[in-house]
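Pasting as-is:
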Amino acid sequence: MRLTSEQRIFSEVENLLERKITWAETTLWSPHIENSVKGVYILRTKKHMLYVGKGSIRSRLNTHEQKLSGNLRGAKMTYKFKLLHEAKLAPPVTEVYVEFFECNATERSMCEGYLIHKLQPPLNDEVDCNLMERLR
């Protein structure tokens, strides 16, 4: 049986995640991450996966901290984060944790897409879900 291209890509990413990736953990409200670190990250609480992203991790976490706290200092409030606030479901920033790993640009794109597909975090635009049901 031949693997589909999606299966081959997922298999490649799973191998990468098993072989190469060392996850680190920090808090959203006090990230101890150098400005130069680029990679993939997961925002979560103790109960829920919230978001998977990629890029310059410290900068992206600053943006997410603003959107979760509602204290926008340059970040734009996106649709799903706005819904989160309207439903009064935004977790306190002190209860949001970050897991991340450093990787190159190609690995960032592959791993982010794979993790969004596998984890279905409700705040990612790519995930079609009822945000309120998922986070209650």
